[in-house]
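Consider this record:
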Amino acid sequence: MPQMQQNEKPVRPEQKQNQQPGIESAMVPAPESQPRASSAVPKLKNKVALITGGDSGIGRAVALAFAKEGAKLAICYLSEESDANDTLEELNSMDCDAIKLSGDIGDEKVCRELVKKVIATYGRIDILVNNAAEQHPQENFEDISAEQLERTFRTNLFSMFFLTQAALPHLEKGAAIINTTSVTAYRGSSSLVDYSATKGAIVSFTRSLAHALVKRGIRVNAVAPGPIWTPLIPSTFDADKVATFGSDVPLGRAGEPNEVAPSYVFLASHADSSYITGQVLHPNGGEIING
């Protein structure tokens, strides 16, 4: 009888086959090979999702993709009322039960209030998408002020701590947390040092939180988009840079938000990604970042 290593726990009956590649019918228990969910059943049917930055860009695309899969939605935004109204109208046209909530997620009290409103409306949260972010290019590192540094970290990183802490009492086994990081977390950006630093921290946050919550049955993953055509781009860069945005990746163009959204659907679906936690998906136009 083989000896188990210390801390190694038996998870299958002891068994051995003497010929490769082996016979599946002889395995006990048999491997589960049938699809985990029917394609006829929406992947997120009746799940409640809270999405920050859900008014536009990647957040809007994720909201629409979740709605298509049967989720109920709360989209959070800062102050872009017209975008939020457009997104809500589109969700309603899909017969999606959805609400919009505004507030500065860099403020811990606001995060608690957002969660309270979602619970008051739906009674639960099944999926938390920490997506909202801001960036402020500085060609000279010395020009990053203390105010900018704090603001970027509050919006991009502190908010994830605040919202997760507020939502956690309402997340049950099978829930999913999905954080938006960035390709800049892996390759850096000379003009977005503070932004890239937050995105690197989000990767570590995701991996550590996944370990912290694994025994509760809550999966934590992230998505690291490359150059994606969102309102953040023309509101960040000058016209010349916008004109060539994304042209330096192998696919030669910026991605669209709806090319990123399926990554979030996959990570939100327990049927599809039940064996994935602490990981990062990379819809980035072909850039190899080894992360």
In short: The mean pLDDT is 94.
